[in-house]
Amino acid sequence: MLPIPLKPFFTRLLLLILWAMGGLLLAQCANEETPLEPLRSDLMMVRTDARAVITDLVTDEGKRLSVTNQLRGVRADTTYRVLATYRPIESSSQVWVRHVVRIPTANPVQLKEQELRDAPVQLLSLWKSKTFLNLRFGIPKSFHGEHTIGWAFRGLSQQADGHRKLQLQLYHNAHADRQDYSQEAYLSCPLEPFSQWLLAGRDSIVVQLNTLKGVHTQTFAY
Q1: How many CA atoms lie less than 13 Å away from 126 in the CB half-sphere?
Q2: Partners of 79 in the β-ladder
Q3: What's the pLDDT band for 195 if we cut at 50, 70, 90?
Q4: Where are the alpha helices (DSSP H) in the chain?
Q5: Do 157 and 97 reside in the same domain of the chain?
Q6: Spatial distance between the Cα atoms of 145 and 16, rounded to a whole number of angstroms
Q7: Domain boundaries, position 167
Q8: What is the pTM for the complete model shown?
Q9: Are residues 85 and 34 in the same domain?
């Protein structure tokens, strides 16, 4: 396999996510009483208006859902990723939102071998949607422990038939924290920047992470 030259996207220094657990996730909840109908929870994008009120949920497939209740977001006139708990309104593109939890997203960074950290995590689920690579995992930690989490770029190769593989690794610096309990968390990686190297239907993304049960490797079609 032949190595592929890197473009500046992977050579820029990008900040990894510093997770001060306890301030990790920011949630907004509706003031209304919770309806009795079943609720759904999905990773989505939210949009806010000039008053910082959430106006829309956008699925990873691009479907726009209008929010019927008044729910304040983090900032005005912005879009960010959340885990949304909501109730679809029958026969419409509207939803009643119970609450949203902000989910970190991170582009990969290129690190020297000696800079890599791979403290183990508890793998709960790893999947790819149309626009994001998504990880649900548990972080073994102490109550006040701080962990640095992100994606490390590990190479881009091309086979003789033209098939390219982009390799990612979960970066996890536990900073010598104790493993008193496990805190559940999410991390997403946007897929759109990879389109300058990968071709849908031909290429793939290989993800590796160190888990409590050993190294886990999973391949996704791009």
Answers
A1: 21
A2: 47
A3: very high
A4: 8-11
A5: no
A6: 16
A7: 2-23+106-221
A8: 0.85
A9: yes
